[in-house]
Design a protein that fits this description.
The radius of gyration is 18 Å and the shape is globular. The longest helix has 14 residues. The strands form two sheets. The protein has a six-stranded mixed sheet, sandwiched between helices. The protein has a four-stranded antiparallel sheet with strand order 2-1-4-5, with helices on one face. The chain contains ten helices and ten strands. It binds adenosine-5'-diphosphate and magnesium ion (MG). Adenosine-5'-diphosphate binds next to helix 1.
């Protein structure tokens, strides 16, 4: 289950406002790529362009390409719902469906897709996904309790399980640990390192220690006062965090701004 994901000269707009400009990135398979940069530089916007969630917001527009296995996801024939099953997403705030149990939350996307309906098959998918998300042992005895009864860190892993249940190829994570305590954060990071064996992962984080600890590649983005977010530097994380080439990257990672 490995795919080629890359962007080519990607621009994204909110109305007339250009939020990111000319982004060309290759996301390495079975690796974690971190997108870092100060608030407002366009990290979340870029991430949402990767699975066409940007266009869900009114008056938005994208130029350029996102290419998955040779196919431009913005080609007219592409079904956004189908592609979002291939490129799953986890958000900053854990958002389990409040009226659903833990188990129902995990299989919600699978049921929506309608391909699996048998109860025993859905149970098996729930278990497999919860195991993958390193949550099974904590919830196996209370699968019928509400998803919102879990702790914040557990809820975030529940959302990861829900994203994994539809068997995506790419996992997009927008600051998945920013609302969590240090122990939950560590669990999410461990989980990501484990998941990259199977998935290609793109994570947005404003936590540079986190990017340095768990990503293989890092892209540093920056926007000016009146200019859109751009990719200043991209490379393997060890180089970006030890020997950045661009002085702006160095200023950022050493905490001089942002
Ligand atoms: N829903 C929106 N409507 C209008 N502008 C937005 C919206 N979301 C983000 N923006 C603008 O796009 C730019 C990039 O924002 P964002 O992608 O959220 O940055 P980051 O995730 O790096 O903090 C900012 O100028 C922000 O104000
Ligand atoms: Mg953001």
């Amino acid at each position: 289950m490995t795919v080629d994901l890359r962007t080519q000269s990607l621009n994204a707009y909110y109305g007339k406002h250009m939020a990111v400009r000319d982004i060309t990135i290759n996301f390495e398979k079975n690796a974690i790529t971190a997108l870092i940069g100060p608030s407002g530089c366009g990290k979340s916007t870029l991430l949402r362009c990767l699975n066409r969630m940007h266009e869900v917001i009114a008056n938005t527009r994208v130029e350029g390409q996102v290419v998955l296995d040779g196919e431009n996801l913005y080609d007219p024939g592409v079904d956004p719902t189908a592609l979002r099953r291939r490129i799953g997403m986890v958000f900053q705030r854990a958002n389990p469906f409040p009226t659903m149990t833990i188990k129902e939350n995990v299989v919600a996307g699978v049921r929506l897709a309608g391909e699996v309906t048998q109860r025993s098959a859905l149970d098996a998918i729930a278990e497999k996904s919860l195991r993958q998300a390193a949550l099974w042992d904590e919830v196996k005895d209370k699968l019928n309790q509400s998803g919102t009864s879990l702790s914040g860190g557990q809820q975030q892993r529940l959302c990861i399980a829900r994203a994994l249940a539809v068997e995506p190829e790419v996992l997009l994570m927008d600051e998945p640990a920013s609302a969590l305590d240090p122990i939950s954060t560590m669990k999410i990071e461990e989980l990501m390192r484990d998941l990259k064996k199977t998935y290609t992962i793109v994570i947005v984080t404003h936590n540079m220690q986190q990017a340095a600890r768990c990503s293989d590649y890092t892209g540093f983005m920056l926007a000016g006062e009146a200019t859109p977010g751009e990719l200043v530097e991209f490379g393997d994380s060890s180089s970006i965090f030890t020997t950045p080439k661009d002085p702006r990257t160095e200023d950022y990672i050493t905490g001089r701004f942002g």
